[in-house]
Amino acid sequence: MDVRFRLDELVARLGGELVGEPATTVRRVATLDQAGEGDLAFLANPKYQSRVKSCRASAVILAPAARDLSDLPRIIVGDPYSYFARVAQLFNPPEVFAPGVHPGASVASPIPSSVTVAAGASIDTDVELGEQVVIGAGSRIGRGVRIGSGTRINANVTVYHDCVIGAGCIVHAGAVIGSDGFGFARERDGSWIKIPQVGRVVVGDDVEIGANTTIDRGALDDTVIGNGVKLDNQIQIGHNVRVGDNTAIAGCVGVAGSTTIGARCMIGGQAGIIGHLRIADDVVVSSGTLVTKSITRAGVYTANLPVQGHGDWVKNFAHLRHLDALVDRIRALEQRLEESTPE
Amino acid sequence: MDVRFRLDELVARLGGELVGEPATTVRRVATLDQAGEGDLAFLANPKYQSRVKSCRASAVILAPAARDLSDLPRIIVGDPYSYFARVAQLFNPPEVFAPGVHPGASVASPIPSSVTVAAGASIDTDVELGEQVVIGAGSRIGRGVRIGSGTRINANVTVYHDCVIGAGCIVHAGAVIGSDGFGFARERDGSWIKIPQVGRVVVGDDVEIGANTTIDRGALDDTVIGNGVKLDNQIQIGHNVRVGDNTAIAGCVGVAGSTTIGARCMIGGQAGIIGHLRIADDVVVSSGTLVTKSITRAGVYTANLPVQGHGDWVKNFAHLRHLDALVDRIRALEQRLEESTPE
Amino acid sequence: MDVRFRLDELVARLGGELVGEPATTVRRVATLDQAGEGDLAFLANPKYQSRVKSCRASAVILAPAARDLSDLPRIIVGDPYSYFARVAQLFNPPEVFAPGVHPGASVASPIPSSVTVAAGASIDTDVELGEQVVIGAGSRIGRGVRIGSGTRINANVTVYHDCVIGAGCIVHAGAVIGSDGFGFARERDGSWIKIPQVGRVVVGDDVEIGANTTIDRGALDDTVIGNGVKLDNQIQIGHNVRVGDNTAIAGCVGVAGSTTIGARCMIGGQAGIIGHLRIADDVVVSSGTLVTKSITRAGVYTANLPVQGHGDWVKNFAHLRHLDALVDRIRALEQRLEESTPE
Question: Quaternary state and partners of this protein (chains A, B, C) (predicted)?
Answer without folding.
Answer: Homotrimer.
